[in-house]
Amino acid sequence: MNGKLIRDRLLASTIIAGTVAFAAPAFAQDAAAPAATTSATTIAPAAGQSVTTSSDASGPSSGGEIVVTGSRIPHPDLESASPVTVVGAKDFKLTGTTRTEDLLNSLPQVFAGQGGSISNGASGIATVDLRNLGPQRTLVLVNGRRVVPGDPRTPFTDLNFIPSSLIKRVDVLTGGASAVYGADAVAGVVNFVMDTNFSGFKIDGQYSLYNHDNRAGSSVTSANDALGYGYPRGSATDGGTIDVTATIGAGFDDNRGHVVAYAGYRKIKAIQQSKRDYSSCSLSSNKASAVAASGLYACGGSATSANGTFLTGDGRTLQVSGNNLVPGYSLYNFAPANYYQRPDERYTAGFFAHYDVSDAFKPYMEFMFMDDRTVAQIGASGDFGNTTSVSCDAAFLSAQERATLCTNGNYIGQTVTAGVISGTPTLFTDANGVNYNKANVTILRRNIEGGPRQDDLQHTSYRGVIGAKGDLARGFSYDASYQYGRTNFAETYYNDFSIKKLTNSLDVDASGTCRSVLNGTDTQCVPYDIFGGGVSSAAVNYLAV
Fold it and tell me: Which domains does the chain have, with CATH numbers?
């Protein structure tokens, strides 16, 4: 010992390797300092922090103070060995990503949530799901502050709200930060750091599309052929996307203040599964024992078919063939109508501003706007077993169909157990005083006349932030803000069926008139003839909601 103790507060020394950050402690020294050196060290910032550069022109003097520059994170408890992944602006540019969720989904810790590739069950927003714990357990921040929920039904941030061209970097913390942020951050935090100091003017624009050569082998095509499903061949070019964003920024008052504004437009065209040979049907792998006889894959389908599947109360399965009901059923290929990529149109605009009055008072303001509209599409609607009877005197039943359905043991009021019929047929009376029976039959029939179901989803979001931050004294700082957000949501279904109207349209008398018309409960009812006579456009329009 030289009799001198060199001591000081040692914060933490941070080493950056790739995108993984870990802390290495520094130790107090009681030996003489080494020879003077000149060095400069740049330490990568944590979420919401600025880059800190430290330099010393000479080594510490005898009895001097050593200051180790480390993380300036406001909550030291968040600084841990938990991995932090940083996605920079170059990553967005090099990948040509127009949808923020697409790039995040490529990270191993991110599981695919809601996005533009979901059609059945789409909410119309884009979410991020860390560690597969659900988007409700992943906290999304912009410049370290929370973002308004993207949908009134599900309180998750819509990534469509964030302009990818203005992103400086994205910090992804998967170690969890629930001690600070609460249960929202059990899975982790995704912080979008925007380039709020951009100066100048730029226009980012790109156009992209998909091209696929449909040349699947016999293992795929034979599965389609087995059920008579069609599939495309040759080249398919589709899914064109245009994305344009204009950004302008400037400093003022000797760069004590800065304003950045942006406006963007994006339009994405649809891709249907029918345009790809490997998705023109719902493929599944056959069991090993069935491969030799049936091939590697099999196409799936729905028993709610185009010609209808009829499940009688006495255990028979029937389908329509001409004007007759015959044993068996066929499958409906629901895959082709589904979207691989939903059509989408989005407008964005906003600005970020700040002004440094002094070190102790730095007011700032943020405003973001988004209007996004997308359409989800899936297979046609229909009667998915929603109706369980049909009038035996219905005009649309042929003599053979009536005799097949309206038979002893299959009337409403009767049951069949182990081949034993019990009960008596229930007698119904309509408004005209006519008595009739009903057959016990569950109907599965696809609305092929009405086309695919569509869900038109529109989200309009606003977010405003006003606040101030500053350093009050050594080791004391503050950041206080007020945020207001609002999301307007509109949803319209097309080509779906009303269950109540389905029931009315199948309860028809011998003259072909709905009994709901006779009793006045639904005077607009149109008979739904699915027994071989042909479904009219008037019936489809009546049933659609």
Answer: 1-79 (no CATH), 82-195 (2.170.130.10), 388-451+494-543 (no CATH)
